[in-house]
Design brief:
The complex is a heterodimer of chains A (538) and B (60). Chain A has 538 residues and is α+β, with helices and mostly antiparallel strands. Chain A has helices spanning 41-52, 77-85, 89-95, 132-144, 194-198, 263-266, 269-282, 329-348, 360-382, 387-400, 404-407, 490-494, 520-531, and strands at 32-37, 57-60, 74-76, 97-99, 101-106, 109-115, 127-129, 149-152, 156-163, 166-172, 177-187, 204-218, 227-231, 240-246, 250-256, 290-303, 308-309, 312-314, 320-321, 447-448, 451-452, 460-465, 480-485, 502-505, 511-515. In chain A, helix 1 (41-52) links the parallel strand 1 and strand 2. In chain A, helix 1 (41-52) runs parallel beside helix 4. Chain B has one domain. Chain B is 75% helix and 0% strand. The longest helix of chain B has 17 residues, at 3-19. The N and C termini of chain B lie far apart (32 Å). Classes of the chains: A alpha+beta (538), B mainly alpha (60). The complex binds flavin-adenine dinucleotide. Chain A: Keywords: Monooxygenase, Oxidoreductase. Chain A: It comes from Roseibium aggregatum.
Chain lengths: 538, 60
Amino acid sequence: MRPAGRLELDSLYFTYPHFDGPTDRAHLSDDAPVAIVGAGPVGLTAALTLASEGVRSVVLEKKATFNDGSRAICIARQSYYILDRIGALKPFLEKSLGWTTGRTFYRGKQILEFKMPDSEAERFRPMYNLQQQYIEQFLWEAADASPLIEIRWQSAVTDVADENDGVRLSVSDPAADYAFKADWVLAADGAHSPVRKMRGLRLQGENYEGRYVIADVRMEHDYPTIRRALFDPVCRPGGTVLVHRQPDNIWRIDYQLRDAESAEEATREEEVRRNVEAVLADIGHTGGYDLEWWSVYSANTLALDDYRDGRIFFIGDSAHIVPIFGVRGLNNGLADVQNIGWKLGWVLNGRAGEGLLDSYTPERRGATLDVFANASKSTRFMTPPSHGWQVMRDAALSLALTKPYAGALANPRQMVPYTYADSPVTLADDPAFSSGPAPGSVAADPPLDQGHLSERLSGFTVLSFGDGPDKGELDWMEGVTVLRIGLETDGARAYDAEEGTLYLIRPDMHVAARWRQGEPDGVENALRHILQNAGGAR
Amino acid sequence: MTSDEFETFYEAMAEAIDAIAPEYTEVFLAKLCLALGQEIGEGEKALALIADCRKDLARE
Ligand SMILES: Cc1cc2nc3c(=O)[nH]c(=O)nc-3n(C[C@H](O)[C@H](O)[C@H](O)COP(=O)(O)OP(=O)(O)OC[C@H]3O[C@@H](n4cnc5c(N)ncnc54)[C@H](O)[C@@H]3O)c2cc1C
């Protein structure tokens, strides 16, 4: 919502583009290898991921522009690797604000300062703040430049019907209704997913009580990019407030609503202003401010039981709704895309069998359940759901004023990448390793030559340490890259490697298998298992 | 106690308070403190914790 006198897209700092529906219409009913429903951040990233695998897609979006309001603002380190892989990173790095630190206050006194893991050797900061409309704009710019991506704006998908080897999509745009066939569909149509409803599927899980108002204000405010959490502050006794810095002098203020406060009342402009002003007074901001946008948000942990329904895959908010604490909404969706994107790409390129696609649900639903577990902990601390949690939370906060160990309970546990341990395409670990990334986890990214290892990954990558097997012995297959890494390097240390150690890294940067003493045959068998027999293994 | 164990303890207490009838909350918490005080095994330490925990209850 926006202040009186301003329309939904009248932002103080962002110009929303207007996109017409398709004008060149001769080809609209032609078959497509992949149709993507929704041009939100997840749908656009999916199109770019497929394009990076050489796969063409058609994106259908019912609106004429980007999502209103800044919504998701925290992008995690792992998501920057995804943006890098799809060639969209540059504008994100230029515009966003990187950060590592959070401070938690109780009744105005600091009880915790946490730092997310970071060092000079890391390629990216643990977290970046950027408004969602910029996220969508930068993704759109990259997608618009790709000859493999066709975005159809003002085009609502109204029906999906199974057909032989494909799905027939019915589309309605300002000029006409039409239908076309796609081999595969990615449903990136958001939390209210019409596609999910068309398939008769329902999200399962819990709705939490805690409701927050999120308000963005523009102000000249001198505080570094540090997440501030205020418990029981003067401005909202008994409640919780979060303050985040965004680019363009925009600040995000989240404050918890009391049980008695109705959402209708709380989202009236005067109410929002009154509450925002109280928060600003509390954080010592004396200058003026402009109100940009606000909304209400509640914490839910809801997910589909299966992210796949025939030839349709659910990605992002259509598959799961997660609490905002710990910034998992968007980041979790981008990780879905990275996962299904390369798998579908490799199937469509004829490099992998369809069985590979069966690993999408166990890997990504597992990740979502893990997010639920962590997010539920933070949610219980932010908005205690019952008397017991309330008493303990208040006791911990009070104790934290003198005992730092109690303050640690307030750590929001920002999202870290999930390990695909129970996946049909994760191979058993080699017990000879004592450290380094195990199969299923995200590859380490140590400095290498002038840059980082991640900049050299492409397709499946074999890391070969010392004088181990080289190209020729290993790159027998299209899409496999071999990277030789010397001993006595940051790389060898990060991977607990010795002469002859091999790692097999997937296109989504997760480790598929590793051998302390590897042979080309072992790598070949592992790849065959992943790409050809994965379906049979389930 | 590791920080994970501390958190598990915190959560178990929250669940215990929710599980018992509300009229017994205070007695339950006092009983738990007596048991923990005994486990500490040092009278002075236990008394010092009482003094510590009386602080910061009311808003200043
Ligand atoms: C008010 C609000 C605040 C939020 N705050 C945060 C936050 O602070 N942190 C965080 O991490 N996350 C936050 N989120 C969540 C975050 O915005 C989402 O996780 C993210 O937008 C998910 O992206 P998506 O692409 O899956 O879905 P969406 O961004 O919802 O995109 C779905 C797209 O599909 C389109 N669509 C729907 N139906 C059809 C159809 N039938 N045909 C064609 N197109 C269709 C929609 O128009 C939309 O553009 C917030 C969400 C909301 C609503």
